[in-house]
Design goal:
- By secondary structure, the chain is α+β, with helices and mostly antiparallel strands.
- The protein has eleven helices and 13 strands.
- The chain has a six-stranded mixed β-sheet. A four-stranded antiparallel β-sheet has the order 10-11-9-12. It has a three-stranded antiparallel β-sheet with strand order 2-7-8, with helices on both faces.
- The longest helix has 25 residues.
- The chain is globular.
- The protein starts with 19 loop residues before the first helix and ends with a strand.
- The structure holds alpha-D-galactopyranose.
- Alpha-D-galactopyranose binds next to helix 5.
Length: about 400
């Protein structure tokens, strides 16, 4: 989940803006009058398929975006952290006291303090540091700007402190910052994606044991593209609705006597639905169980190099989110319908829902046509113009040279 939107589109190119890493370095220099020790970059993400399955111990298939958050950082003596950000008027500054308990730093700084808190709580000696943050990952568009910030800060502090912290452990710590310090009850997908993704691949993640497989996702070779549409829909009660969906899934798992909905096999779905008390709960469960299966089916097709054939699975995922999980809004439904009518092979909302972005699988030479069709459909419905861009799977969090 993200802090309040800043009015920058998910899909607008950073026109007229200097490179994000250069902005972080320049910010560091202007704030502290010294050069940083290093710079660390973490990407935003889209989820190809597998929505609201992560906190049900299920499967997801995200990939990293070529939009990044960069942290320039240098160590300092003592347990103090100063953080400059290009989106804030003033740097924030906090010490050990503010990271002794969750929630003491609020706003965007809470994501940074939350990482320090989570590392300290896990027993790591976190080095004091000065940090400067710049980002091309838009806030509030469902592309995981918060996970990118957490991952960049966590990786910077781990490197500066020489912490013995294997990559596979990092997503849980970043998630803990978000869940327990900031207070958003999200799953493990976003932090795993931004930390563990590889360029040219989607990340097949089993959210129960956090095992991963990097699935080749070579869109160029298949003559395809992923078009990302920023729906520009205002997030309507997204946090409360997310929490209520999660609670409904946990209640349903209890009723069915399983640890998580992942344990309901798709072959036993009808029997499970028959044991649930009401239609709404049945639809929530049906979404999660069928969505897990769609992830597995998508992975099979990608492993076999049958990329175009994943289109119908993406579209089925959208229908399930719209009709069963009830997390779409008119703007995203319009974008999906218009993209499909213009020839997209498949399209779906990506992320937590109630706005955010839509992704469409398109033949590469039709991406402009599909984008124009979505824009026209928006104009017809009187919605604010959407943002559109094509993306390729990018690398996860790295230290920059
Ligand atoms: C948000 C959360 C994730 C995941 C998705 C829905 O992005 O942060 O953990 O639950 O929603 O798939």
């Amino acid at each position: 989940m993200t802090p309040a939107p800043q009015g920058r589109s998910a899909t607008a190119p950073a026109q007229g803006r200097t490179d994000v890493a250069d902005r972080a370095t320049a910010g560091f220099h202007s704030a502290y009058d010294e050069q940083p020790t290093g710079r660390w970059a973490a990407p935003g993400r889209v989820n190809l398929i597998g929505e609201h399955t992560d906190y049900n111990d299920g499967f997801v298939l995200p990939f990293a975006l070529p939009l990044r958050t960069v942290v320039a950082a240098a160590p300092r003596p003592g347990e103090r952290w100063t953080v400059w950000s290009e989106i804030a008027d003033q740097p924030i500054d906090f010490g050990a006291a503010e990271t002794d308990a969750p929630g003491r730093v609020t706003g965007w700084g809470g994501y940074v303090a939350g990482v320090v808190w989570a590392l300290r709580e896990a027993g790591y000696a976190v080095p004091g540091a000065r940090l400067a943050i710049a980002s091309d990952v838009p806030l509030g568009s469902g592309l995981s700007s918060s996970a990118a910030l957490e991952a960049a800060v966590l990786t910077a502090l781990a490197d500066l402190g020489g912490l013995d912290l294997p990559t596979e452990r990092r997503p849980r710590l970043a998630q803990r910052a978000e869940n327990a310090y900031v207070g958003a009850p999200t799953g493990i997908m976003d932090q795993s994606a931004v930390i563990r993704c590889h360029a040219g691949h989607a990340l097949f993640l089993d959210c129960r044991d956090e095992s991963v497989e990097h699935i080749p996702f070579d869109l160029d070779a298949a003559g395809l593209a992923i078009l990302v549409v920023d729906s520009r829909a205002p997030h309507r009660h997204a946090d409360g609705e997310y929490a209520s969906r999660r609670a409904a899934c946990e209640r349903a798992a209890d009723l069915l006597g399983v640890p998580a909905l992942r344990d309901v096999p798709v072959t036993g779905l009808d029997a499970a639905l028959g044991r649930l008390p009401d239609d709404e709960t049945r639809r929530r469960v049906r979404h999660v169980v069928t969505e897990d299966q769609r992830v597995l089916d998508t992975v099979e097709l990608l492993r076999a190099g049958r990329v175009p054939e994943i289109g119908p699975l993406l579209t089925a995922s959208h229908a399930s989110m719209r009709d069963d999980f009830e997390i779409t809004v008119p703007e995203v439904d319009t974008a999906v319908e218009a993209a499909l009518a213009a020839g997209a092979l498949g399209a779906r909302m990506t992320g937590g829902g109630f706005g955010g972005c839509v992704l469409a699988l398109v033949e590469a030479d039709r991406s402009d046509t599909v984008a124009a069709a979505v824009t026209a459909a928006y104009a017809e419905r009187g919605f604010a113009a959407p943002g559109t861009r094509t993306v390729l799977p990018a690398p996860g969090t790295t230290r920059l040279p």
